[in-house]
From TrEMBL:
MF GO annotations: calcium channel regulator activity
Taxonomic superkingdom: Eukaryota
Organism: Cyprinus carpio carpio
Main location: membrane
Any Pfam family the entry gives: Claudin_2
Protein name per UniProt: Calcium channel, voltage-dependent, gamma subunit 6a
Keywords: Membrane, Transmembrane, Transmembrane helix
Membrane spanning stretches: 20-40, 117-141, 148-170, 190-218
Protein's UniProt keywords contain Ribonucleoprotein: no
Length: 232
């Protein structure tokens, strides 16, 4: 049995593995959100293009997609184009401002590329910290050394903070994009990729806090709720 001191007990090891599962879930959601282009959906009026089709768009950190939807497939009562799951001709392209610096034009508007690049950097650094935190936890469990729990906790908490900074900066870039031209009114909404990344940020922050608690030399529950000795 693994003992006390700087070592990890068997009961503590089980808690660490359970918390690591939570962190890994956050990492998977981060990868899913970062790799998809459903961060924001842009929908003009359904009569923007013509009476037969309308154009919608959605983009993420790396790629932008447009989709031509038939107006006849939409609810006659709705005023805006969509929803995105309707059948239509799609066209996707990667952002070129990461390579050539060339920006794109959507609905006569141009995204704020600097803010998009910053949000992408936050996401990449966050994912790197998540991986480093996971490596620290694996080393802690494999070597039975409690020391690695603290740097892992710091990595996970910082990664969660960076994830939320990424979302804030990205949302600001969307607002800047919408304000770049007022000639075409657009309805916009953050999509499911943002939900994935937001949930990931919350999970890794909670996991980091739990790792920090597990790294303490004493149980906080025993400190807060000391056992009462009863004399019979």
């Amino acid at each position: 049995m693994k003992s006390s001191g700087d070592g990890i007990s068997e009961s503590q090891e089980g808690k660490i593995k359970l918390t690591l599962f939570m962190a890994v879930t956050g990492i998977m959601l981060t990868v899913l959100g970062m790799g998809t282009e459903f961060w924001v959906e842009l929908k003009p009026s359904k009569s923007f293009d013509n009476n037969q089709t309308c154009l919608v768009a959605h983009y993420g950190l790396w790629k932008c997609c447009t989709k031509m939807i038939w107006v006849s497939d939409m609810d006659p009562k709705q005023e805006i184009c969509g929803p995105l799951h309707l059948q239509g001709e799609s066209n996707c392209t990667f952002f070129k401002f990461y390579t050539t610096g060339e920006n794109i034009v959507l609905f006569q508007k141009t995204p704020e590329k600097d803010l998009t690049v910053v949000s992408a950097m936050f996401a990449i650094i966050s994912l790197f910290l998540m991986v480093m935190g996971s490596i620290c936890i694996i080393m802690a469990v494999s070597k039975g050394v409690q020391f690695f729990l603290k740097p892992a906790a710091v990595c996970f908490i910082l990664s969660g903070v960076l994830i939320f900074l990424c979302l804030i900066v990205f949302h600001q870039s969307v607002l800047s994009f919408l304000a770049s031209d007022q000639s075409i009114p657009l309805h916009h909404e953050l999509s499911w990729s943002v939900t994935c990344v937001g949930c990931a940020g919350a999970l890794v922050i909670v996991a980091g806090a739990l790792f920090l608690v597990l790294a303490l030399p004493y149980s906080p529950w025993e400190k807060c709720l000391p056992k009462k000795n009863s004399d019979i």
